[in-house]
Structures
1.
Amino acid sequence: MRRLITVGSVKGAPGVTTTVLALAAAWPDRADEGVRPVVVEADVSGGDLAVRFGCPHTPGLLDVATAARKDHPGSLLGATAELPFGVRVVASPAGGRACAEAVRLVAESGQRVLLGEEGDQGTVVLDVGRIGAGVDGLLDAAEAVVLVSRGGADALAHVYAHLAEAGPLVERYLLVVIGPCPYGPGEITATLGVARVAFLPWDPKAAAVLAGHSRAALRTSGLRALRLMAAAREVAGQLSGGGEVAVAGLSADLAGLGAVPAQGGAVPHGLAGLAAKEAGS
Ligand SMILES: Nc1ncnc2c1ncn2[C@@H]1O[C@H](COP(=O)(O)OP(=O)(O)O)[C@@H](O)[C@H]1O
Ligand SMILES: [Mg+2]
């Protein structure tokens, strides 16, 4: 079965689609046995990728929705198109009733198509736009829910209100804060009641590539790495369970200098690793 990661916001347009593409483009090669992730646009207010990249939305989300109710729905992979930077996407129309209906159908009974068969590998990164009524099924089926927000108090107040009503599902949430944020990770996790938070920088150069305005290379590492992509690589590493994060903070820095003994070196893989990293930073 594939792994499902649902990404959305609670208010506004903080950069969900950009984050989804950055994560998919930065997905570690070695994760999921080398199977590249598939991005699925399932935003009731309509998709952006077909317009931004001039790629087809047929086959796309509407076909996935049609297949969802069939006994043998076929593979999700038959509905993908490929973006210039190598990310596979299931695109959706830019809006309208058919699009909203398709999202509703996929949320209700599309898990089977999204998750695939027992032996299917890979990760589906689902862009639901706003997390609102009607996408519950896509949250329930997700291994992780990535909530994207800007970093100001006003934006985080909406996140707080949402998380307060998320119930047990809150354990699966990872809050991704885009751009400037005056608050530290410990303060955010403690105040908002979310276990994990990650920060992605405001990076117009990378965002322009991810919006189809530029064809620059999306380097994720090295001297010419784009800041958003380098940060997305770290988050993707954690979501895919393949990342290895050195413990940050004073004790790790002192251990690095040999001043104190190292405390276990790398922290566990997966989302737990991210939480541990934050706790130590
Ligand atoms: N990290 C970022 N750095 C710079 N610009 C960004 C970033 N994330 C999003 N943007 C820009 O913000 C606008 C909205 O982004 P988008 O991802 O479409 O938001 P949403 O999916 O939440 O509606 C786009 O112009 C996009 O290029
Ligand atoms: Mg969007």
2.
Amino acid sequence: MSSLLLLPRHGGRALSVIAGLRSTDALSGVHSTARRFIVDMSYSAHFMDFKGSSIPSSMRKLVVNKLSPNFREAVSMQSVAVPTPGDADLLVRNRFVGINASDINYSAGRYDPSVKPPFDAGFEGIGEVVGLGLSASSRYTVGDTVAYFGSGAFAEYTVVPAKESVPVPAVKPEFLTLLVSGATAYIALKRLGDLAKGETVLVTAAAGGTGQFAVQFAKQAGCHVIGTCSSDEKAGFLKSIGCDRPINYKTEDLAKTLRKEYPKGVDVVYESVGGSIFELAVNSLANKGRLIVIGFISGYQSASGIPPLKGGTLPVKLLQRSASVRGFFLPHFISDYREALGSMMQLYAKGKLVCEVDGGDLAQEGRFTGLESVFRAVDYMYDGKNLGKVVVDVAPPSVSSSKL
Ligand SMILES: NC(=O)c1ccc[n+]([C@@H]2O[C@H](COP(=O)([O-])OP(=O)(O)OC[C@H]3O[C@@H](n4cnc5c(N)ncnc54)[C@H](OP(=O)(O)O)[C@@H]3O)[C@@H](O)[C@H]2O)c1
């Protein structure tokens, strides 16, 4: 039987809800002494997980102290008390956290300019519930495995509102790839792509976190898929996930190749790079083509965050082809999120979706292990080295630990 704990730390009054009471039991239990114990555990300085191992009193997390797109300049590691989950929250012991191109937009304060440092970094994690509030215990219990898309993931422990977390069958990094990267591709193509069988789709940064999913979903829709990337190894990977025409732009001239091989243009572009690649993609649109702006990574490291764009002729080009440019930002499509995740998880379970993870095994200093390797992992992405989703193993299991 599990012990669900809501403990103010270090000697505050504590509630311990004993036994596996869930759902309405857990919610009503506060008033029903006949059905559950509420034990004063104020002597305890620790949360306890269901295996009885202790949660340390302090942990490490990454904090943005200064606004800058230079992640190393903006962010530092801090030791802080392990936070206490609120009534509707989970305390998650992070096992894997995901790196996103926008981690440096976030550290530069571009998401919400009203938020001033210090603030926590990291968008997504997956791990084990080790503590939770009473209301949260209606849906979760200690020991559950969950993934979440929310702020403050670059930490050893993160408090996550239970309603923003997703139960996952196991703590596998593959599930982490779906939270932001997979969901972005799934929802953007579904809502804005208007894909029809036989159409041609161009995916930029195709071998990366979100690009790999765009390639696969476009293939599943019966399209011919072109994917850009920067190495032959990535081109080989793209072939393996069904991309019809990987283009390594380091060895092939992208503009010439598109003009020569696709003279009628491409119907849809899933565009993540921006700047000159955006311009090239606009020039490559077919009549009634749709370009989805997913990002513009080529500008993120600059002071403005925006890559230079000529763009003055954009209205002419769009009009002449009845083409359109459509922006997509995942938080605006949260109503599609659960369906997207459920559907992708099913595809993965059936072996119909590749969720490629790059844990840094081939990185210069080796695998991304421990919170401190988030810095290396961000550099690695911006060096264009990653193949698949960049994931950091925050807390690899010790020899003595059991299931993770
Ligand atoms: N709109 C949304 O809601 C949303 C959500 C998630 C992600 N995104 C966007 O999706 C894009 C990809 O993000 P991700 O997290 O999945 O990253 P990723 O694709 O896993 O990694 C970035 C890739 O972009 C290319 N790249 C890196 N630095 C570059 C630079 N300076 N100039 C040009 N290309 C560069 C590299 O691929 P190659 O070397 O192979 O070209 C690199 O592997 C980003 O633009 C991001 O902002 C948007």
3.
Amino acid sequence: FGRLCTAGLLSFLLFLNAPIQTFVIPHSHMDVGWVYTIQESMHAYAANVYSSVTEELSKVKERRFIAVEQEFFRLWWDTVASVTQKKQVQQLIKEGRLEFIIGGQVMHDEAVTDLDDDILQMMEGHGFLYETFGVRPQFSWHVDPFGASATTPVLFALAGFNAHLISRIDYDLKDTMQKNKKLQFVWRGSPSLKSQQEIFTHTMDQFSYCTPSYLPFSNRSGFYWNGVALFPDPPKDGIYPNMSLPVTKETVHAYAKTMVENIKQRAAWFRTNHVLWPWGCDKQFYNSSVQFNNMDPLMKYINQNSKEFGVSVQYATLSEYFQAIYQSNLTWEVRGSEDFLPYSTEPYQAWTGFYASRNVLKGVARQASSKLYAAETLFARYRISFPDGPVAKDWALDKLRALRWAVSEVQHHDGITGTESPKVADMYLQHLLQAMMGAEELLAALFLLPHNLESPSTLADVDQALEQHVIIYNPLAWNITTIVNVTVTQPSAAVFDDDGQPVPAQIQGSAHSNATYDLFIVVELGGLQYRKYLIKFSENSKAYEAKAVSFERRSAKDRAKAGRRLLPVLSECYELLFDQDTNLLHSITYLEEKRRVMITQDFWEYDANGDVKAGPISDNYIFSANGSAVRAYKAVEMEMIISGKIVTEIRQYFYREESDKDYAYSITTRVPECFGTKLPCHRLEQTYSLGPLSLNTEVVLRTSTSVKNNRTLYSDDNGYQMMKRTYRKFTNNTLARNYFPMVRTAYIEDDLSRLVLVSDRAHGVSSQTDGQLEVMLHRRLWNNLQWNLGYNLTLNDSSVVRPTLWLMLGSVSATSKLYQREAVQLQHRPVVMPIDQPRKCLPHRGSPLRSVVLPPNLHLLSLSVPGWNYCSNHSVHLNLHSQPDYDRILLRIMHLFEEGEDPELSKPVTINLKEALQGMGEVKGVEERSLTGTWDIASLQRWKWKTRTRDDNFTVTISPKEIRTFFVHFVSRNF
Ligand SMILES: *[C@@H]1O[C@H](CO)[C@@H](O)[C@H](O)[C@H]1NC(C)=O
Ligand SMILES: *[C@@H]1O[C@H](CO)[C@@H](O)[C@H](O)[C@H]1NC(C)=O
Ligand SMILES: *[C@@H]1O[C@H](CO)[C@@H](O)[C@H](O)[C@H]1NC(C)=O
């Protein structure tokens, strides 16, 4: 328990007699998606929120409002706001009465988002706010995400925030914290960064972000005088459903009494004499004159009788509340790097289903993010090297901005979570796919247009049927050797690099189609480099033609015979054994230590209940298993594409019934076999196919091993840090409450071995039995809960999904060096671009780009041309340049390792940015910035005073888990 310092004690004693100071914070929770599309929401209420709030705040100077989701605000600002309203907004911001909180495009989800995208969506909003108003949000308001990640407070601290606010945490935990006055604490979200990036955190009490709606004297909706938003059109007469009784002479006392009682109830849960009283809820304040015109007299009445009530009330922004807490000078308890995941609201309400809801949307969101990363890095390189090149900069920035916007939007806590209605999921997908096409156009232009106009390449005629060109780009700042697959229509081929040298390749029939072939090419690429490869199709070509061997279908009943006829697949790292009597994986030996681990993988199904009368149901949000999982198949077939050349591919098909013609699930495993090359051999690539599922099933891939993990597993928070997940027994719902989110990585381990999975999208993970790691890959549900039916949130998802996991096995110390980089490499696989018309446009021979390589423990988190028009210097930044700044490059570098994780790789790294970036151009200046770019790091003084030694101009030292952000200026090169 924290001690009170003398000043705190004094003020505490003074507070005993003072009325409770209540901060009434007007807000509207505006989901960027969920049940209604963004356009529908803008039309029905969102635009009216900002129009009417602007008008109402301008009328009375005590009134306040906090604006949270920037996407709606920007749409209003750009497409609705009049010149007068814009002037009023500028004034309100200046007076601190309209305050931007969080400042991101959305209130992002915390469980299934990746830090890349969390940073992006914040930067997108922050850049807009800073260049438009010169303001930098400093407080968060994460009132609705389903559980709280330990990465979020770290990111907010890095962005310069002074306090963080959360709400949805386990109901029993919140209860205890409330009773013990521990809802507020200082959170050290990263075990490596510790106090350096700690942040004060406020947990909302049990009333959360909505005003209590119960009024003893009325059956209406409480303090919501404007009623409930109406879709699709707002009512013509301004009369909304459920508008509460007006505050009048007759009702004011009853209202005041209800409000005061609520305030006093809440005050008892906090250590200071201040109460945060959020006034608002979902879709509120679209008719804010009614809101304020009733609240004004109510508050006046309470204040006139404040002695008697023991309460005073005032309109406030969030910063005014936190200022008061900060000034109380109390000493706070520290919370370490544990998160608040998973999240339950009631005994049978574990919000662990959404970790796996809408696998397709989760996958496309991540693909879009990596496409954006590739396009950003390549465009940044292009701008530095060819400032006058033919790719028009404003056209390019438009393409990038569209994709930044789409990727930001889907991070909403009812977006990538899969907890939205089908039409809203389609909206996100459409925005993402359209913007991805734009980014592909940009990539093609960057690859294909001659870089300067002087040297058009001359090319000999080629016969398109016999040749194909492919450009392969490595978007990471590390040199890589990897296998790339290209789909071709010819059964034999030879591959050459841009020096005309033959490249190792392998060709085989595709698993998905009889008409196409998979061509695997071993590519070696420098950091941020691309190369052109030539594929020649001919009878006597050089690529090794791999042959398929099929194994008889085996019944799951024959498991008893397992272990007698084992088929080995050997690579430089592993010996995998497949069992011919079950067609399942039997074991993997990691050769470095000659240690064998028994491993079987197959699919299991949870049977979900859809009838509310029969018990707890599963839906978009909630996983509520109706008993343990059952084996999802009766027979298995196996096919092996044997090569011994580049990869061996094992395809396993799982049939629901022994005689079924079509399989229900499949696993394709690729084992790299390139002996004696630089190709990493520890990576076993697996792609699965699932669906369409039968109704009310939730399918897991179960990896059962001899690892003695005691049901403990590790899974990541937002791809940033690993969390230890110890199995816990609960009075009820133990199965579902032991599910955890996996964004990039999950592993199980014992003293000797660790089995790691890295993922291309988020899933739910659990270890229900010793040695097991199960990943929930897909769900299809329906239920008859009225609320779910009304909003169309039953998750009847009939899609076929094809997620990818990479699997690694080894000693704890060997895998500790690998998994962070593997997770990044899976996220940022090389970009493969086949060129259809090689004659028309082809880059000149050889890549014009030199490689850019960072040390293995540093990851290039971002390299982009943000295109903001503000000056770096805060005091003059609003002297707007009318043009975006195309020459300011944003660079963000992250140390991938935790302190003590690896003897070498966990060390702080000192690099000279001028040298590290010389492959790109000549650096003339570097400015260190806050995470989202808006603060010069030297002028950033967060509320807790912190120190950091300044580095010289170009040399920086990056410590474990640090993320550092820079503006880099290059010497301009004009050709
Ligand atoms: C807390 O400390 C600050 C600065 O020392 C001081 O201005 C303020 O009055 C103190 N607040 C209380 C409640 O003692
Ligand atoms: C390469 O293989 C992956 C995994 O099977 C697949 O998703 C992808 O579409 C393939 N790429 C090409 C270009 O065929
Ligand atoms: C990366 O590859 C480039 C060639 O593409 C080579 O010049 C450079 O030395 C390599 N760097 C490292 C650190 O391996």
